[in-house]
Amino acid sequence: MLKELLKKNEITAMKARDKATVSVLRLVNADIKSFEVNERETISDEGIIKIIEKHIKQLKEALQYAIQLNHEEKIAEGNFAIELLTPYLPAQISDEDVNSMLQEIITNGNYTASDMGKIMKEIMPKVNGKFDRAKINPMVKTLLG
């Protein structure tokens, strides 16, 4: 479903001669096709979400570098691409919601600081694609003291 939507939007952008949108969507669609060829199976929406998350992560890293270099054109391109891809991800969970989920997991499992891996295993399926993974580790460390 998500695969068809991305392809349809790429075609619409091509017809509208929107080169920037076509470029971003073409990269994502190429990664989807590459996955399907390499794995010899049709990709799921979850797999597509992981690909989009990977692209957004790379774009954010490139954006940080462009900001350091004060490269206005690259900053604009990066922001555009992130804004274009973000709506394809599931609705995002707030920091407060994840924090309360973590508190519940820690309380119910009687976890301590040495159980970091167990906590991460429990929270990741709940927030997959809906929350920035990089924020979870510091949140857990803060809650464990």
Automatic annotation (TrEMBL):
SUPFAM superfamilies: GatB/YqeY motif. GO terms for molecular function: carbon-nitrogen ligase activity, with glutamine as amido-N-donor. The lineage of its organism: Bacteria, Bacillati, Bacillota, Clostridia, Eubacteriales. Pfam families: YqeY. It comes from the Bacteria. This is GatB/YqeY domain-containing protein. It comes from Clostridium gasigenes. Gene3D superfamilies: 1.10.10.410, Uncharacterised protein YqeY/AIM41 PF09424, N-terminal domain (1.10.1510.10).
